[in-house]
């Protein structure tokens, strides 16, 4: 096994790590690049299915837009990542807008925006050639838009004032700009000891995350308010929370008992925490390294989203709703139930493609490799529970018109 080739290491302590909460945006958050087995491009079908569930809402909102006297329509995909989802969503938007704004009247420009560590190179290689309207009429193997990459955080300004007509963000806005500082401070009442996310964390921790999520959403809206043209559309799809009053329950499941700590009520975070604990109990990392790690994500309730939007005078709410979905179709559940090993590999690949860089920024490559070996084993142990149809996801679907 590859693991045996790795020389024994000194337990990593948080002080030996170059990671800080402010570095999250700079290097840790991006999805795994390239097109290999562990890449986001090869492990984003769950996200594609979620987008497919709500895309008709986006289409309807796009069809209602009218930009008169414009020669260029500018579209930004914020948190675009790299892979088939990125390209299919953009084509859909441009095709839809062409119904009211045909190519003989306007040109389209698409900005693919993500953190600088995103694998823009792979994305650019995937782009089909630009459509030549003189020779390529009707060709589907071309793109009808000019493309550009914009590296930077969507919590800040990325574009000139009043330059964007459509801004969209798919499955990205549940990522925070950082883990709240208090959560990683052993001297703070909000120190999240022995837990590695906000899920089922104590109240002071949850409150710190709520505050961070609120600040971040306000910063996102403030930046977009400046960048969007009047009449422009923002469409957002991100993980949400059904139960406004229980922010500590980030991942819902039917028939779970939130007061019972042994209830395996949540996905991802259970096996994920078990994997951190394995590294501690095997002496590969110090307990303080685990304690100093937190996932910078928070699933907001619709009330929290509505409140942030209403605090801004610049946007009118067009769509504000939630959509729930099962993680696995019944056919997939049956398939994976017969082969937990294959399921463990697949689910671990998804985890690694989204969280690998973040863990690596804390643990370095060798320990990260071991971490995901443990994670795969932990998924296999919990496979029956993870595959249970009682677990579901909640998506916030938000459409905003710039006044
Ligand atoms: C799960 S991927 C979603 C990718 C793609 N939109 C899709 O639907 O498949 C989340 C993306 O959000 C990006 N992201 C997270 N925080 C960000 C931020 N503050 N600014 C820009 N992009 C961010 C990550 O780098 C990642 O590429």
Short précis:
The protein has helices spanning 24-28, 45-63, 84-98, 120-126, 203-227, 269-281, 287-291, 302-310, 330-337, 340-381, 383-387; strands spanning 72-78, 107-114, 146-151, 164-170, 228-241, 300-301, 315-326, 392-402.
Highlighted features:
single chain; 403 residues; alpha/beta; Rossmann fold; 11 helices; disordered N terminus; binds S-adenosylmethionine
Describe the structure.
The protein has 403 residues and is of the alpha/beta class. It has one domain (2-402): Vaccinia Virus protein VP39 (Rossmann fold). The protein is built from eleven helices and eight strands. Strands 1, 2, 3, 4, 5, 6, 7 and 8 form an eight-stranded mixed sheet that branches. The longest helix is centred in the C-terminal third of the chain and has 42 residues, at 340-381. The structure holds S-adenosylmethionine.
Sketch the topology as an H/E string, one letter per element: HHEHEHEEHEHHEHEHHHE
The helix tally amounts to: 11
Structural class: alpha/beta
Cofactors, ions, other ligands: S-adenosylmethionine
């Amino acid at each position: 096994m590859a693991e045996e080739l790795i020389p024994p290491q000194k337990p990593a302590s948080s002080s030996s790590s170059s990671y800080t909460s402010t570095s999250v945006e700079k290097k840790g958050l991006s999805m795994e690049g390239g097109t290999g087995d562990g890449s986001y491009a090869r492990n984003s079908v769950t996200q594609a299915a979620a987008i497919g569930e709500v895309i008709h809402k986006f289409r309807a909102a796009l069809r209602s837009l009218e930009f008169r006297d414009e020669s260029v329509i500018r579209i930004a995909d914020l948190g675009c990542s790299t892979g088939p989802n990125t390209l299919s969503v953009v084509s859909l938007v441009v095709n839809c807008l062409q119904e009211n704004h045909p190519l003989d009247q306007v040109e389209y420009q698409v900005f693919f925006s993500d953190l600088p560590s995103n694998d823009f190179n792979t994305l650019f290689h995937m782009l089909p050639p630009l459509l030549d309207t003189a020779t390529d009429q009707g060709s589907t193997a071309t793109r009808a838009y000019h493309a550009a990459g914009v590296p930077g955080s969507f919590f800040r300004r990325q574009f000139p004032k009043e330059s964007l007509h459509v801004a969209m963000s798919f499955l990205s806005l549940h990522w925070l700009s950082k883990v709240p500082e208090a959560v990683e401070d052993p001297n703070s009442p909000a120190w999240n000891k022995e837990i590695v996310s906000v899920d089922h964390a104590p109240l002071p921790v949850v409150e710190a995350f709520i505050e961070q999520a609120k600040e971040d959403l306000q910063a996102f809206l403030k930046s977009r308010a400046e960048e969007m043209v009047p009449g422009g559309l923002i469409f957002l799809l991100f993980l949400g929370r059904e139960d406004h009053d229980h922010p500590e329950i980030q991942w819902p499941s039917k028939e779970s008992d939130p007061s019972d700590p042994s209830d395996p009520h949540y996905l991802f975070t259970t096996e994920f925490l078990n994997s951190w604990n394995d590294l501690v109990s095997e002496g590969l990392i110090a307990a303080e390294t685990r304690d100093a790690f937190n996932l910078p994500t928070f699933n907001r309730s619709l009330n929290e989203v509505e409140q942030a939007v209403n605090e801004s005078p610049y946007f009118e709410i067009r769509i504000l709703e939630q959509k729930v979905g099962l993680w696995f179709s019944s056919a997939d559940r049956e398939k994976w139930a017969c082969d937990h090993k294959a399921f463990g590999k697949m689910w671990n690949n998804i985890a690694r493609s989204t969280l690998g860089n973040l863990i690596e920024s804390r643990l370095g490559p060798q320990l990260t490799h071991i971490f995901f070996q443990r994670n795969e084993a932990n998924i296999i142990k919990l496979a029956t529970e993870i595959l249970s149809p009682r677990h579901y996801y909640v998506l916030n679907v938000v459409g905003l018109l710039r006044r």
